[in-house]
Amino acid sequence: MPGPVRFANGVYHLNVRVPIDLVARLRGTTVTLPVDGLDVTVRTGDKVIVSLRTTEKLEARRRFTPAFAALQAHWNAVRLGPKPLTHKQAVALSGDIYRVMVDREDEPGDFAGIARAHEEAIEAFQAVEVDAPLEAFPNEDPEGPPTVGFPGMDPAEPLEAPPLSAISAAFFAEMQLPMGPQWLTWRHGGDLATPFFSMSYTRALEDLFGADADAVCARHQLNLDPESRHQLLKQIGNATIAGAARLKQFAGGDYSPDPFANQFPEFEKDGRVTVALLFDRWQTANKGVVEASTIRRYTPSLNSLAAFLRDKDVRRIDQDDIWAWAEHRRDVDGIAAATVNRNDLVAAASVFTFATTRDGKRLRADNPVAGVRLVEPKKKVTREPFFKAREVKDILTLSRGVQVRGAHARQAASRRWVPWICAYSGARVQEPCWLQKKDVYRDDDTSIWVMRFPQTKNGLARVVPLHDELIAEGLLDYVQCADDGYLFVDDRRPRKGTSRTIQEQRASQIAEWIGDHVDLDDGVDPNHGWRHTFITRSTGKMETRIQHAICGHNQKRTVADGYFTATIGEMKAALDRFPPFNV
Asked: Cβ contacts of residue 53 below 8 Å, gap of 6+?
């Protein structure tokens, strides 16, 4: 299976050769692929090359997988040939664009402003036709070109334009905006010729909505005939009008129930429920229920299954289909059997379980993934997963040498302090990345310094005392001098559509930084190794339930465990018995 390629500038790319049977057909065409939550359109040559927009190896691998799966699905759709769409299907697909537009209710201003600008341009265009129409007068020479002027004027006299009304001036101003002629032509509803520009309706639709149509078709693995594409573009235009109206409601403070939401039916290919459609339903039903990271992990697996089974209805998929896909992942895609079992089959099983439920419309009575598991070669364990003393010293020494200053002070602070926090708490590396200044404080009841991890794997915030070594190292000094907000990432929202939080991205950056500067044995995780190390060193020095409370292990082996909560004092006493590292 291909992987991300690092270019000379350090940025990783998807760089894949087009299959021989498709090169001639696809050369010069465009394809839209998902990259970190964005739809990126590139032109196809003998290869498809698209930037993954990262210089980090681990992040590049994560972004490569869904992009390559979408590319394979596109190639499969091309091989099957163009297909027609019904009117209902085109409306359903345009609903994807509408939902993307209105999924900005927390910050609708920018899109709402654009919507208002377009409406003003349309009104100005309609008014200028009446307010100051222009027409062509015949020349004295019937063979010559026409002369342009205003009605009632002598064509022989020099042309002096009368003063423009405010609304005409608005039209000319809007006309010069990016895509201004396209917007005006689209709302005109046909080819448009004015003394200032000429624009075909087809070109206007393609310029305005072609990229959206490409993204929708890529997502649903569609290859449309020209008539169906034209119909889809028109419906996307209608969805854009509805989306702009909704955003204007948000901007005006109106968050009442969406009057447009029910006008878009669910997309079905000829009544079939494909894997892609089932996965869409699963995501909709679980919005706000499952973590974004879960959806991110499931997406490459379900995209692969959808591409492998193509348009097959989920009600007709049997266990043999799942076996064939799992073996394809192992033998053709080059995915390790253990990874297929742990990632691909788990994701598929979860989505097919949904198909057996009421919310999933009871499409199936059974789960075809049940019982499918590839034989895993016996794994050779070359060493323990915890850090050796040399590795601990090298990482913490590297971290201690980081200077926290400059334009990227918080990134530097994450390198300086996150490894130390993990070393003396057993925290998962993402958990310190969520810390804000307010999360490090002195406990009122005990006067013990604590840190509160607000975001954890099990969704339960956790308070852990600071080990004395962290205080001696100067962590409190950094916290007290830091600005309000996050300590180790910037105070900004992730880009809309990005599946990974800035905390997850920072955790990956720390892992790659350590991997680049410290000689670690194969099989030792530069981040998770701290968790193995803490638990290994603390076992026997603290009660197991206290250890679980510090590390955030949710292991309720008895009923009593469900009622147990470790106190700050008990955890601090246990941490006092945790020996300092020799750095």
From this structure: 11, 35, 36, 63
Number of alpha carbons in the 13 Å side-chain half-sphere of residue 356: 12
298 pLDDT more than 80: yes
The CATH superfamily of 269-379 is: Tyrosine recombinase, N-terminal domain (1.10.150.130)
Q: Are 173 and 159 in contact (CB under 8 A)?
A: no
502-517 and 389-400 helices cross at what angle (nearest 10)? 110
What are the residue boundaries of the structural domains of the chain, listed by start?
1-62, 83-145+164-267, 269-379, 389-576
Task: Report the alpha-carbon distance of residue 436 to residue 114 in Å, rounded.
Answer: 35
Cα distance between residue 484 and residue 223, in whole Å: 51
On the 0-12 / 13-18 / 19+ scale of CB atoms within 10 A, 279 is buried
51: left (phi over 0), alpha (psi -120 to 50) or beta: beta
* Helical residues (DSSP H) of 310-373, grouped into ranges: 319-331, 337-339, 345-354
Q: Show the tokens assigned to 273.
A: 């429920």
- Position 491, amino acid: D
Q: What span, in angstroms and rounded, lies between the C-alpha atoms of 323 and 325? A: 5
The contacts of residue 367 (CB under 8 Å, 6+ apart) are 349, 352, 353, 355, 356
Q: Say which residue, 507 or 553, is predicted with more confidence.
A: 507
Distance, in Å, from the CA atom of 418 to the CA atom of 410, rounded to the nearest integer, reads: 11
pTM above 0.85, yes or no: no
CATH classification of 389-576 is 1.10.443, yes or no? Answer: yes
At residue 253, the pLDDT reads 83
| CA atoms of 5 and 201, how far apart (whole Å) | 40
Amino acid at 518: V
Tokens 């939550």 belong to 37
Q: What share of the chain is helix, strand, coil (3-state, %, to 5)?
A: 50, 10, 40
Read off the pLDDT of residues 3-58 as tens digits, 9 standing for 90 and up: 899 999 999 999 999 999 999 999 998 888 888 878 888 999 999 999 999 998 88
Q: What are the angstrom distances between the C-alpha of 545 and each of 96, 331, 446, 556?
A: 48, 44, 20, 9
Asked if 510 and 525 touch (Cβ cutoff 8 Å), the reply is no
What pLDDT is recorded for position 180? 81
CB 408 within 8 A of CB 420: no
Distance CA 33, CA 68 (A): 8
Distance, C-alpha 275 to centroid of its chain: 20
- pLDDT at position 314, please? 92
> Which residue, among 387, 380, 385, 354, has the nearest Cα to 368 in the 3D structure?
354
Neighbours of 514 (CB within 10 A): 22
Query: Cβ(577)–Cβ(541) under 8 Å?
Result: yes
At position 31, the amino acid (one-letter code) is V
- Is the Cβ–Cβ distance between 149 and 143 less than 8 Å? no
Which runs of consecutive H residues, i.e. helices, occur in 252-343? 275-285, 292-309, 319-331, 337-339
